[in-house]
Structure formats: structure tokens, C-alpha cells
Amino acid sequence: MPKLFSVRKDGTGQLIDSYNRVVRDLRISITDRCNFRCSYCMPEEGMKWLDRPELLSFEEIERVVRVLVERYDFESVRLTGGEPTVRAQLPLLIEKLARLKRPSGTPLDISLTTNGATLRLLASDLKNAGLSRINISLDTLRRDRFIELTKRDQISNVVSGIHSAVEAGLQPVKINTVVMSGVNDDEVVDIVRFGREVGAIPRFIEFMPLDGDNSWSPAKVVPANEIVERITDIFPAKLVSSGSDPAKRYIFDDQMGEFGVIASVTMPFCDACDRLRLTADGKLRNCLFAVEEQDIKTTLRNSGSDDDLAKVIEGSAKRKWAGHSIGNVNFIRPKRSMSQIGG
Ligand code: SAM
Ligand code: SF4
Questions:
Q1: Nearest CA to ligand 1 atom 2
Q2: Which of 2, 116, 156, 261 has CA atoms 20 to 30 A from the CA of 166?
Q3: How far apart are CA 162 and CA 117, in angstroms?
């Protein structure tokens, strides 16, 4: 059994799970609320939101991140939700996190995943606060389809948001597209064309069983290799190494950018998973599909020391499993849907 916490030659620590994977990336959900109702993520009606006091404050989030960075040399955090931009004062949180320095002095890599609805108003403030990268969700370029999928008539604001992110100098700007059979799989090439035009990197995500209304079925998943085939028939591209990035990256032969596919269902990347998740209500989750969580909020609010927080963190890393089993008979769907976990 590997040690959960190890010290490198240069004196910096790292967090190692029971399968010898280094854990160094934190996804932070900062709210469960959202201004959209994407069918693959949450039900249209009946969501019960967390009460405000249940949410971790910015100071509490900063403290957890500080411990992860100082003790285990975490490299990156991604803010998500729900929709992170609906949380007031988002740039303030980014400023706080941007002040944290890794033991080597290297800045923490801070990114955001957003639906982009208000990004045209926020992009430069986010960049000035210290955000480096951004992923914007866009599943269709057709207004009618967009309304059907998100229950909101906001496509032009999202497209303006993508342009604003590029103009603000966020680098890279990625477009996240969840591909669903018979819903939007006929648009993958159009979305690639759009990405090439605006200077953003499209990333196609296999539909996962974390939807709000339990309508997921294997038949609705479009396998990543099919997506790649459709794209490369029109825009030839070559697979390049992607390190610990869950997306398989393809660079276009004409050097006009790249696209990615995230095959979470057909080719899970659990062997290389380096993530931990923090939910908006202060629970650590060691996998998107975890069925148990570790409560760190109670420790934070009961005046726990950094050592106490570290104990909860190491306990979570220790329980991180080898991988999820979507599609197998022993797969158990987590109780929370995507918007409540933080995608
Ligand atoms: N509201 C933000 C957004 O939409 O980008 C951030 C939160 S959202 C839960 C994060 C990512 O999860 C989005 O890119 C979304 O498309 C993706 N997502 C949500 N439900 C999904 C599902 N069932 N399968 C695959 N991806 C999903
Ligand atoms: Fe909201 Fe993002 Fe979920 Fe859509 S995918 S409902 S924008 S949290």
C-alpha cells in the first residue's frame, strides 16, 4: 500500500491515492444553482437549492485550497457548479485563489467551466482577477435546439460570451459539447468549424448517467471514436499526447487549431485520474461517480486545524477507487446529479 502523503526530494509534499496515482487537481463547485436547465444535467422543475448558510464561504474554499496547495502541491483548481457565474463576487474568489502560491513559487492554475450566459459582462474581470483558462458549454448552434436543450433563449449571449473570452485573452478558450445520439450528434462538424473560426477548442463529451431526470441510456451515448471519425472525414487531424488531460487531443493537419474528445463512458481515463472534488456544501468527492463523500465543512466550522483538514483530505484520497463501472451490472448511479456534484 503506497503512503498517502509523500515528500519529494525537493521537500514538497504530494498526495497519493491507494492505486499510486498522484492527486493534484481540485474541482470546486461553488453553487448548485443555475440559470439554465440543460436536460442532460438537471430537471426543469423541482430542484431544491441549498440554503445560503450551507454553502462554503469564499474564505472556507480558500482555506481548503491553501492546505491542498501548501501540503500536497496541488497544481490546478477548476471552478464549476451549477453555474459558477451566478455566485455573487466570483472575481473576488478568483483573486483569493490566485494569491496562493505552490511551494515552488509557481502560480496555481485557475480555470472555470461556465454556460457562458453572462460571460460577455464578466470575461475581462475574471481574467484580471487571475483566471487563466475557461471552458464554455455549447451543445448546439441552432437557436431552436438550444432552447429545447437548455430551456432558455440565450444562444446569442453564449456566443458573445465565447468571443469576449477570446478577446479578454483567456487562453485557451474551450467549448464543451455533450454529444447525445439523435439530439445534437449531427452538429459535431459545425461546432468544430465554429471553434476554428472563433479561436476556441471544441471538446466533445460522451453523455454520462448523471442527468437530472434519469433518462440516460447507453443508446444515447455517441462513442468518442465515432465523433472523431465524423470530424476527421472533413477536417483531417492527428492524435497527440494529452498527458493527464482526460480529453484525447487531435491537432488539425492544416494547423488551424485542435479538438478533443472525452470518452468518459467508452474509454474511461480512471487510470490517469488526478482529481478530487469539493461540492458547494463542503463534501469531498474522490470521483464524479463516488457514492460516498467526506464531510470537510464540519471540520472547517468546528475550528479544525490544518492537520484536521489534512486528515479528511487524506481519508478521501485513500478511499478513491480504481475506476467507475458505467455500463457494468455493478454500476451504482450516484444520488446527486451533475449540477449538484460539479462537472
Ligand atoms: N454550468 C456550467 C456549464 O454548463 O458549463 C458548469 C457546470 S456543468 C455541470 C459542467 C460540465 O458538465 C458542462 O460542460 C456540461 O456540459 C457537463 N455535463 C453536465 N451533465 C452532463 C452529463 N450528463 N454528461 C456529460 N457531461 C455533462
Ligand atoms: Fe446549468 Fe451547466 Fe447543468 Fe446546464 S450543464 S443545467 S448550464 S449546471
A1: 114
A2: 261
A3: 10
